[in-house]
Write a sequence for this structure.
DNA sequence: CTTGGCACTCGGGAACACAGAGTGCTAGAC
DNA sequence: GTCTAGCACTCTGTGTTCCCGAGTGCCAAG
């Protein structure tokens, strides 16, 4: 059905179209890639490819353009991820190494990725799910007010001001802090609800209202931040691409945390560290026909903590983009593991 | 030179052009606003206004369009800030009231402002300059590692991991924490460097290397965050406006913290709580010809902590935009003061 | 199966005409 | 002196037409 040469033709079409952004015709194809066959033969192959739905013509008698299905085949079977150059690697390394805290790592990463791919980069903050508690801090602010600070092993810090139901002296607060830390230190965040469930009962009766208040805020913090923050950068690159139609939709999608979340989430497969690519209409969201997403998980070790990726026109250079995403993910993972 | 009626004509031109986005001609003007004079008279006035540089024609024989100078006059003398409707006020209030921490306040504010004005909203994080220290926390993480957490009265939390030059037991850390808090609690951040300058000398010799390390990180944190973070939202609204030319430039400016910073900063006047408007070419940045910025300071009480504002086409509804910016700034200030 | 030839199709650009909106100016009215 | 009416003029934007060229599909021959 699809012999070697037809595949070569498809590959050539994708490559040419990506670089020129113009429908590619049989003649130009036969010339530029030395296919050793005549334009007529190429036309026959093209007809077959069109029959199968891999390419299409914008209008009768213009060149061919890959369909989403065509890109899919290209990505799956016809291309290899292109590794970055040494210079680029070094640039990444030095750029990320300067980060001072988690916020900074994420910000730098998203900018880096945007610049590297000349597209819109999207980075999800490391989720708390797999993180563990490194420390819980209770800071007395006023007679009936404390600040709860939760520090995780990923360097994330969550804080909440808590209004207490009664006046509590600092020593009692200190005691509670010790109890909480003894109970939670080093535990996975997912286990926290379970671990604290019987805590009130193990404490003197007079402490229970206070503890209950604190715990409710603590648990709230966990679930609230469970669906995580996502940041993006490189929106300016959208204007450069000839998006024209739908630019507004794309920008709207980017600003909707929920949508963005789902898009990155959708790309999750059983092996989260693998690169996943969603092409055009494979994305559920209507506004993003015409855009592809290349994403992968990142995080220290086997712990895939979150995802990052790139969003761009379906007409993108997949090998290069995939290479950049993979490389950046690896470096960020290293940085996170080290800190 | 510019009598009452000429001013009325200018006002009418601005209003019509803002709402229709088309050059406005003498006839339509005389009809829609009951000026009680004939189109011919209006034409004479227009000629005068053009002579003075307040309006211009895109090409011979099309209507007139306000120049930046025209908008400036309009803003300064011909318009009144339009207060929000009751419903809008209530919406703002409830939307902002739900915020859980500083991050959340800022995020909600910027989204709210973008939605309210249908333009790009820009919010600067409250700067540390005028804030005071509420608490300093040292959390032992490992034998030679502590986390420094700095909590300010604005609810901001800064954290840094510190590698210590030697092993330090937890009790010593606790002691240092107490010393630091005794020294800094309630003090303005700007005073911190001075306050800690002689701290090492007041401590036992053996503590000095450790304290020096901690202090250097603390001071670093202060200066690093001194130039503050800025966030924006509503980029999608740019696509809606017929920006076309320069959209890319605008997006680039938005993603450049430094540029954005300068733009908001430029708008600072001697009374920071006043609304400031920069119109088109009044902005130094080249990419932002064609855009205006409406900004104001916000913050609790007289403490103007930071700035927020809106960026949109020069052709914007200034009275409404200014009303929204002012209202949001007030509410945010309230929220910040309360927390 | 491949190739060369050929008629056909369609999009996009150039040339052109035209209607409509708006202006500036001048001469007359209040 | 100021306003108004009338008039000739000048643009832009739009619709029409026309034509070129790139590219195709098909067919018959190698």
């Amino acid at each position: 059905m699809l012999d070697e040469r037809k595949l070569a033709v498809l590959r050539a079409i994708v490559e040419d179209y990506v670089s020129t952004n113009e429908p590619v015709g049989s003649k130009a194809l036969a010339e530029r890639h030395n296919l050793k066959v005549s334009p007529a033969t190429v036309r026959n192959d093209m007809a077959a490819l069109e029959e199968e739905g891999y390419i299409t013509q914008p209008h009768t008698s213009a060149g061919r353009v890959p369909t989403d299905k065509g890109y899919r085949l290209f990505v799956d079977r016809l291309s290899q991820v292109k590794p970055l150059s040494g210079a680029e690697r070094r640039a990444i390394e030095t750029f990320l190494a300067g980060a001072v805290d988690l916020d900074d790592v994420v910000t730098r990463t998203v900018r880096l990725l945007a610049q590297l791919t000349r597209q819109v980069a999207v980075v999800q903050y490391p989720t708390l799910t797999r993180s563990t508690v490194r420390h819980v801090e209770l800071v007395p602010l006023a007679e009936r007010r404390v600040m709860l600070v939760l520090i995780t092993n990923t360097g994330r810090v969550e804080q909440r001001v808590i209004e207490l139901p009664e006046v509590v002296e600092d020593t009692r607060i200190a005691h509670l802090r010790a109890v909480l830390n003894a109970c939670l230190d080093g535990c996975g965040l997912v286990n926290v609800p379970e671990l604290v469930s019987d805590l009130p009962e193990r404490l003197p009766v007079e402490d229970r209202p206070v503890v209950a208040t604190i715990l409710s805020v603590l648990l709230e913090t966990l679930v609230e931040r469970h669906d995580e923050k996502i940041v993006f950068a490189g929106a300016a690159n959208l204007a450069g691409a000839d998006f024209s139609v739908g630019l507004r939709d794309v920008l709207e999608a980017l600003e909707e945390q929920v949508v963005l979340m789902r898009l990155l989430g959708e790309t999750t497969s059983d092996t989260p560290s693998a690169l996943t690519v969603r092409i055009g209409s494979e994305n559920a969201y209507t506004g993003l026909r015409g855009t592809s997403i290349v994403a992968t998980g990142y995080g220290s070790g086997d712990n895939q903590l979150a995802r990052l990726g790139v969003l761009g026109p379906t007409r993108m250079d997949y090998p290069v983009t995939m290479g950049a995403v993979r490389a950046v993910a690896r470096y960020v993972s290293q940085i996170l593991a080290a800190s």
Strands of chain A lie at 55-56, 65-66, 120-124, 133-142, 145-152, 157-163, 230-233, 276-278, 291-298, 306-313. The longest helix of chain A spans residues 318-338. The radius of gyration of chain A is 26 Å. Chain A touches chain B at residues 100-101, 134-135, 137, 139, 141, 147, 149, 151, 155, 157, 159-161, 224, 233-236, 238-240, 247-248, 251-252, 254-255, 339 (CB under 8 Å).
